[in-house]
Design a protein that fits this description.
The protein is α+β, with helices and mostly antiparallel strands. It is built from five helices and 14 strands. The protein has a seven-stranded antiparallel beta sheet, with helices on one face.
Length: 201
């Protein structure tokens, strides 16, 4: 079995090992607005639900040589963001929003997606997505060492939006949701193959 001390790895090699092994990763499709109300949308596979009371999610933004992405700048400025869930039917659109656009240019327009107004926050959601969250930033944590760091953005979910046809009470029909996960490189996975294990008493 190969073994790697992280201190001996380059930034790129460490990234390849981590993202190749922690799979599949859920994708947080993060919507924000800047101080002038211009929308931004970007997918993050360093994304996760981390608490249930209060419901809390996080996404992690890479900052290289001080260049902060709009998803971080906007969340810091407004204290809000949305997270739309990526199903198979919007996977191509999600991929389009990963393009590097100029600051202030709308990924919604670029990808042909519809910004859906939120209720409790100013940031829009993806109308084509079958589920989304409205979130308020609770904290930001810096990890790493300059010049390459990550800023982890924690957000409390203040409102859920879920299509009726994937909902049974508060249970989700995962086959209908058809969520997509990130593998490594250009690879993605569906959540169609599932099995059950009964938890031991």
């Amino acid at each position: 079995m190969a073994t790697f001390a992280t201190t001996d790895l380059s930034y790129v090699d460490g990234y390849k090992l981590l993202t190749g092994l922690v799979v599949p990763r859920p994708i947080g499709w993060i919507g924000t607005v800047d101080a002038d109300g211009r929308p931004n949308l970007a997918p993050y596979s360093f994304f996760q639900a981390v608490a249930s009371h209060p419901p809390t999610v996080l996404y992690s933004v890479g900052v290289n040589d001080g260049d902060e992405k709009d998803s971080l700048v906007n969340a810091r400025a407004t204290g809000e963001f949305t997270c739309s869930i990526v199903g198979m039917e919007v996977a191509a659109g999600m991929n389009q929003t990963a393009a590097e656009l100029e600051h202030g240019e709308s990924e919604f327009d670029f990808a042909g997606l519809t910004p859906e107004p939120s209720i409790d926050v100013k940031a829009p959601r993806v109308a084509e997505a079958r589920a989304s969250f409205e979130c308020r930033v609770t904290q930001m944590v810096e990890l790493g060492r300059q010049p390459n760091i990550n800023v982890v953005v924690f957000g409390e979910v203040v409102r859920f939006h879920v299509d009726d046809d994937i909902l049974d009470g508060t249970r989700i029909d995962h086959a209908a949701l058809d969520a997509v996960g990130r593998m490594a490189g250009n690879g993605y996975a569906t959540t169609r193959d599932r099995f059950e294990l009964i938890r031991p008493q």
